[in-house]
Amino acid sequence: MRTPPRLATGVLQRLGHPDDAFIGDLAEAFRAGRSRTWYWRQVLSSVALIFIHDAAQAPVRTLGAATTGWLTALTLFLVLGDATRDVLSQWLFGWNWLDAVATQLWWPLPIVAVLVSYIGFALSGCAVATIHRRHAGSALIAYTVSVPLVLAISAAAVDVLTRRHGHVSGPHALFYTVSVALPDQWRSGLLLAPAVTLVAGLFACPRRSAFEHLRPEI
Asked: CA 20 to 30 Å from 54, out of 26, 139, 172, 215?
């Protein structure tokens, strides 16, 4: 007997409020000959529709979820960013800031900064799913969608300021936030940052039962 893709089913259970009957219908259709591509398309369509419905019904909560993610990321970068950078750079490359000032050897810095950035986005995705546990799926998607938008706007602002003033100075927390979307990283963060955020957050999303979302708020 053909088994539906477990990953797709898990995504539906974590990012949506699935109905057991709907999951059963998908499984039966898959066993009857539907393809994995079809199954994934149904799952992603369902998740998208659920998110759109939740966002329309509770826009303030949706905005709050995105805000939670960014506040978490900025706080992590501000409080732990440089410390994490120092630990990783010493562990991976035997490099530290004081030696770099003396030797002008800076090449490990952008590599480690990117690692710090992705760690921050991953942890902030987990935080959103944990804090907004009752609506974890929609909250995580809201934050994930905001990530490339904010990165694109931030990267554009950095480009403009750099052309006008030759350099941009600011807190390291902001650097870790936008570094993955800068030209020296090929703008890769516009795709990878939301992907890392979503995948990490999925592990923090609860696997919901069929009727859990119908329980009254306490």
From this structure: 26
Q: Residues 69, 75, 77, CA angle at the centre, nearest 5°?
A: 100
**CB-based burial of residue 32 (10 Å sphere; 0-12 exposed, 13-18 middle, 19+ buried)?**
exposed
pTM equals 0.90
Q: Give domain limits for the chain.
A: 6-57, 59-204
Q: Cα separations (Å) of 141 from 4, 53, 63, 104?
A: 24, 12, 11, 42
Reading the block at residue 65, the tokens are 């979820």
Query: Residue 120 and residue 143: Cα distance in Å, rounded?
Result: 13
CA distance 68 to 55: 15
**Other beta carbons less than 10 A from residue 207's beta carbon:** 11
CB burial of 147-168 (b: ≥16 within 10 Å; e: otherwise) equals bbebbeebbeebeeeeeeeeee
CA distance readout (Å), 79 to 69, 73, 76, 150, 154: 15, 10, 5, 21, 21
Which tokens belong to 170? Answer: 């600011």
Q: Which residues contact 175 (CB under 8 A, 6 or more apart)?
A: 113
Per-residue pLDDT reduced to its tens digit, 80-105:
999 999 999 999 999 988 888 888 88
Residue 90, both tokens: 């010493």
Yes or no: say if 47 and 12 are a contact pair by the CB < 8 Å rule: yes
